[in-house]
TrEMBL record:
PROSITE patterns: HTH_LUXR_1. Belongs to the sigma-70 factor family. ECF subfamily. PANTHER family: ECF RNA POLYMERASE SIGMA FACTOR SIGL, RNA POLYMERASE ECF-TYPE SIGMA FACTO. InterPro entries: RNA_pol_sigma-70-like (IPR039425), RNA_pol_sigma-70_dom (IPR014284), RNA_pol_sigma70_r2 (IPR007627), RNA_pol_sigma70_r4_t2 (IPR013249), RNA_pol_sigma_r2 (IPR013325), RNA_pol_sigma_r3/r4-like (IPR013324), Tscrpt_reg_LuxR_C (IPR000792), WH-like_DNA-bd_sf (IPR036388). The keyword Transferase does not apply. This is Sigma-70 family RNA polymerase sigma factor. It holds the Pfam family Sigma70_r2. Residues 142-169 form the HTH luxR-type domain. It comes from Streptomyces smyrnaeus. Keywords: DNA-binding, Sigma factor, Transcription, Transcription regulation. It comes from the Bacteria. The keyword Transferase does not apply.
Length: 189
Protein backbone atom coordinates (compact mmCIF):
# COMPACT_ATOMS: atom_id res chain seq x y z
CA UNK A 1 0.00 0.00 0.00
CA UNK A 2 1.46 3.39 -0.94
CA UNK A 3 0.49 6.79 0.41
CA UNK A 4 0.23 9.86 -1.79
CA UNK A 5 2.02 12.89 -0.39
CA UNK A 6 -0.11 16.01 -0.68
CA UNK A 7 2.94 18.20 -1.07
CA UNK A 8 3.97 16.69 -4.38
CA UNK A 9 1.87 18.21 -7.15
CA UNK A 10 2.51 15.46 -9.66
CA UNK A 11 1.35 12.70 -7.33
CA UNK A 12 -1.79 14.54 -6.14
CA UNK A 13 -5.11 13.70 -7.72
CA UNK A 14 -7.28 16.30 -9.37
CA UNK A 15 -9.58 16.25 -6.32
CA UNK A 16 -6.66 16.90 -3.95
CA UNK A 17 -5.38 19.78 -6.09
CA UNK A 18 -8.89 21.26 -6.24
CA UNK A 19 -9.25 21.00 -2.47
CA UNK A 20 -5.87 22.66 -1.91
CA UNK A 21 -6.78 25.39 -4.39
CA UNK A 22 -10.12 25.92 -2.64
CA UNK A 23 -8.34 26.44 0.67
CA UNK A 24 -5.65 28.74 -0.77
CA UNK A 25 -8.16 30.93 -2.61
CA UNK A 26 -10.96 31.20 -0.08
CA UNK A 27 -9.82 30.41 3.47
CA UNK A 28 -8.28 33.79 4.34
CA UNK A 29 -11.12 36.03 3.02
CA UNK A 30 -13.67 33.68 4.54
CA UNK A 31 -11.95 33.79 7.91
CA UNK A 32 -11.87 37.60 7.85
CA UNK A 33 -15.60 37.69 7.12
CA UNK A 34 -16.42 35.17 9.85
CA UNK A 35 -14.19 36.98 12.36
CA UNK A 36 -16.27 40.12 11.82
CA UNK A 37 -19.49 38.18 12.31
CA UNK A 38 -18.20 36.64 15.54
CA UNK A 39 -16.77 39.82 17.01
CA UNK A 40 -13.15 38.69 16.76
CA UNK A 41 -13.45 35.21 18.31
CA UNK A 42 -10.61 33.54 16.41
CA UNK A 43 -11.21 30.02 17.76
CA UNK A 44 -14.84 29.93 16.70
CA UNK A 45 -14.00 31.60 13.37
CA UNK A 46 -11.49 28.88 12.55
CA UNK A 47 -14.09 26.23 13.37
CA UNK A 48 -16.68 27.87 11.12
CA UNK A 49 -14.22 28.22 8.23
CA UNK A 50 -13.19 24.59 8.58
CA UNK A 51 -16.80 23.42 8.60
CA UNK A 52 -17.64 25.63 5.61
CA UNK A 53 -14.77 24.27 3.53
CA UNK A 54 -15.63 20.73 4.56
CA UNK A 55 -19.23 21.20 3.43
CA UNK A 56 -18.02 22.64 0.15
CA UNK A 57 -15.72 19.68 -0.36
CA UNK A 58 -18.62 17.29 0.28
CA UNK A 59 -21.27 19.10 -1.80
CA UNK A 60 -19.60 20.84 -4.74
CA UNK A 61 -17.85 19.63 -7.83
CA UNK A 62 -14.43 21.14 -7.14
CA UNK A 63 -12.63 19.56 -10.03
CA UNK A 64 -14.68 21.28 -12.70
CA UNK A 65 -13.93 24.79 -11.36
CA UNK A 66 -16.61 26.28 -13.62
CA UNK A 67 -18.50 28.17 -10.95
CA UNK A 68 -17.50 30.88 -8.50
CA UNK A 69 -17.74 29.32 -5.05
CA UNK A 70 -17.12 32.42 -2.95
CA UNK A 71 -20.78 33.57 -2.65
CA UNK A 72 -21.84 30.04 -1.74
CA UNK A 73 -19.02 29.77 0.85
CA UNK A 74 -19.90 33.09 2.47
CA UNK A 75 -23.59 32.16 2.65
CA UNK A 76 -22.79 28.79 4.25
CA UNK A 77 -20.43 30.44 6.75
CA UNK A 78 -23.05 33.06 7.64
CA UNK A 79 -25.68 30.36 8.15
CA UNK A 80 -23.30 28.39 10.38
CA UNK A 81 -22.69 31.47 12.53
CA UNK A 82 -26.43 32.14 12.81
CA UNK A 83 -27.16 28.50 13.67
CA UNK A 84 -24.46 28.52 16.34
CA UNK A 85 -25.83 31.75 17.80
CA UNK A 86 -29.36 30.35 17.96
CA UNK A 87 -28.12 27.12 19.49
CA UNK A 88 -26.21 28.98 22.22
CA UNK A 89 -29.26 31.12 23.05
CA UNK A 90 -31.62 28.15 23.18
CA UNK A 91 -29.39 25.91 25.29
CA UNK A 92 -29.44 26.46 29.04
CA UNK A 93 -26.20 27.62 30.62
CA UNK A 94 -23.91 24.71 31.35
CA UNK A 95 -22.75 24.34 34.93
CA UNK A 96 -20.24 22.06 36.48
CA UNK A 97 -20.04 20.75 40.02
CA UNK A 98 -18.17 23.79 41.35
CA UNK A 99 -20.55 26.52 40.13
CA UNK A 100 -22.12 26.85 43.57
CA UNK A 101 -18.68 27.50 45.07
CA UNK A 102 -18.04 30.36 42.66
CA UNK A 103 -21.42 31.86 43.54
CA UNK A 104 -20.67 31.64 47.25
CA UNK A 105 -17.22 33.17 46.83
CA UNK A 106 -18.57 35.93 44.59
CA UNK A 107 -21.07 37.02 47.24
CA UNK A 108 -19.15 39.50 49.35
CA UNK A 109 -21.12 39.94 52.46
CA UNK A 110 -20.37 42.42 55.19
CA UNK A 111 -18.86 39.74 57.45
CA UNK A 112 -15.61 39.63 55.45
CA UNK A 113 -15.35 43.39 55.40
CA UNK A 114 -16.01 43.66 59.15
CA UNK A 115 -13.46 40.97 59.98
CA UNK A 116 -10.86 42.59 57.76
CA UNK A 117 -11.42 45.98 59.33
CA UNK A 118 -11.16 44.50 62.86
CA UNK A 119 -7.87 42.79 62.04
CA UNK A 120 -6.53 45.91 60.34
CA UNK A 121 -7.70 48.11 63.22
CA UNK A 122 -5.77 45.98 65.72
CA UNK A 123 -2.70 46.08 63.49
CA UNK A 124 -2.98 49.89 63.22
CA UNK A 125 -2.79 50.15 67.01
CA UNK A 126 0.74 48.69 66.85
CA UNK A 127 1.91 51.66 64.76
CA UNK A 128 3.15 54.96 66.13
CA UNK A 129 0.80 57.94 65.65
CA UNK A 130 3.14 59.47 63.03
CA UNK A 131 3.21 56.25 61.00
CA UNK A 132 -0.56 55.83 61.31
CA UNK A 133 -1.14 59.37 60.13
CA UNK A 134 1.05 59.00 56.99
CA UNK A 135 -0.47 55.61 56.18
CA UNK A 136 -3.99 56.95 56.56
CA UNK A 137 -3.38 60.04 54.42
CA UNK A 138 -1.62 58.07 51.68
CA UNK A 139 -3.67 54.89 51.35
CA UNK A 140 -7.07 55.78 52.77
CA UNK A 141 -7.50 59.26 51.32
CA UNK A 142 -5.37 58.54 48.23
CA UNK A 143 -3.12 61.57 48.51
CA UNK A 144 0.28 61.70 46.87
CA UNK A 145 3.53 61.95 48.80
CA UNK A 146 3.77 65.64 47.93
CA UNK A 147 0.20 66.32 49.08
CA UNK A 148 0.77 64.50 52.40
CA UNK A 149 4.02 66.43 52.83
CA UNK A 150 2.24 69.76 52.43
CA UNK A 151 -0.68 68.68 54.63
CA UNK A 152 1.47 67.45 57.53
CA UNK A 153 4.24 70.03 57.13
CA UNK A 154 7.04 67.50 56.79
CA UNK A 155 9.50 66.89 53.94
CA UNK A 156 8.51 64.38 51.20
CA UNK A 157 11.47 62.18 52.13
CA UNK A 158 10.11 61.87 55.66
CA UNK A 159 6.69 60.92 54.31
CA UNK A 160 8.28 58.18 52.19
CA UNK A 161 10.38 56.91 55.10
CA UNK A 162 7.44 56.82 57.50
CA UNK A 163 5.28 55.11 54.89
CA UNK A 164 7.93 52.46 54.25
CA UNK A 165 8.37 51.72 57.96
CA UNK A 166 4.60 51.77 58.59
CA UNK A 167 3.92 49.21 55.85
CA UNK A 168 6.83 47.09 57.05
CA UNK A 169 5.50 47.12 60.63
CA UNK A 170 1.96 46.29 59.43
CA UNK A 171 3.28 43.30 57.50
CA UNK A 172 5.13 42.13 60.57
CA UNK A 173 2.06 42.50 62.82
CA UNK A 174 -0.25 40.82 60.29
CA UNK A 175 2.22 37.99 59.72
CA UNK A 176 2.64 38.69 56.02
CA UNK A 177 5.96 37.35 54.85
CA UNK A 178 7.61 37.93 51.54
CA UNK A 179 9.78 35.37 49.85
CA UNK A 180 13.32 36.61 50.07
CA UNK A 181 15.31 35.95 46.95
CA UNK A 182 18.72 34.61 47.76
CA UNK A 183 21.53 36.16 45.80
CA UNK A 184 24.30 33.87 44.61
CA UNK A 185 27.57 34.19 46.42
CA UNK A 186 30.38 35.13 44.07
CA UNK A 187 33.74 33.72 45.04
CA UNK A 188 36.54 36.23 45.38
CA UNK A 189 39.35 35.99 42.88
Amino acid sequence: MSWTVLGSVGAASAQERATRSLYEQHARPLQGYVLQLLGGDLQRAEDVVQETLLRCWRNQQLVSGEQDLRPWLFKVARNLVIDDYRLRRARPKEVDGTAWLEDVLADNDDVDRVLSSLVLGKAFQALSPAHREVLYETYYTGRSTREVSLLLGIPPGTVKSRLYHAVRKLRLVLGVTEAVEEKPVVAAK
